[in-house]
């Protein structure tokens, strides 16, 4: 890239964002291609899916655990706003 082109790219927010984003997009495309087109990639994907599910379950558990508990008056404790 010549200095004049580089200075125009730096001045244009959209162009600068596209240039910054290009390596990430290419790496993601290569990763997806690897996971689809190779036997090793398919094996990696089979491992990633359950891991992603467990990450989601953990995030939901963390969210639910952060809710404050309140005494309902009937010997039971529930999340605030929900009567058991």
Q: Short summary of the structure?
A:
The chain has helices at 3-11, 13-37, 39-65; strands spanning 69-71, 77-79. A hairpin with a 5-residue loop joins strand 1 and strand 2 (77-79). It has one domain (3-79).
Report on the structure:
The protein has 84 residues and is mostly helical. It has one domain (3-79). It has 3 helices and 2 strands. The protein has helices at 3-11, 13-37, 39-65; strands at residues 69-71, 77-79. A two-stranded antiparallel ribbon has the order 1-2. A hairpin with a 5-residue loop joins strand 1 (69-71) and strand 2 (77-79). Helix 2 (13-37) packs across helix 3. It starts with a helix and ends in a 5-residue tail after the last strand. The model has no long low-confidence stretch (mean pLDDT 82).
Kindly estimate the percentage of residues that lie in beta strands according to DSSP: 5-15%
Number of helices: 3
Calculate Rg over CA atoms: 24 Å
Write down the overall geometry: flat
Q: What's the quaternary structure here?
A: single chain
Percent of residues in helices? over 70%
Order of helices and strands: HHHEE
With strands numbered from the N-terminus, the spatial order across the biggest sheet is 1-2
Which structural category fits the helices and strands?
A: mainly alpha
User: How is the biggest beta sheet arranged?
Assistant: 2 strands, antiparallel
What is the end-to-end distance?
66 Å
Stretches where pLDDT is under 50 for at least 5 consecutive residues are none
State the domain count. 1
Mean pLDDT: 82
> Can you count the beta strands?
2
């Amino acid at each position: 890239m010549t200095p004049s082109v580089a200075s125009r790219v730096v001045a244009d927010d959209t162009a600068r964002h596209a240039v910054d984003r290009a390596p990430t997009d290419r790496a993601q495309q290569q990763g997806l291609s690897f996971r689809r087109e190779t036997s090793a990639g398919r094996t990696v994907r089979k491992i990633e899916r359950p891991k992603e599910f467990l990450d989601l379950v953990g995030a939901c558990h963390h969210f639910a655990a952060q809710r404050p508990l309140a005494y309902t008056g009937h010997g039971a404790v529930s999340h605030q706003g929900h009567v058991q």
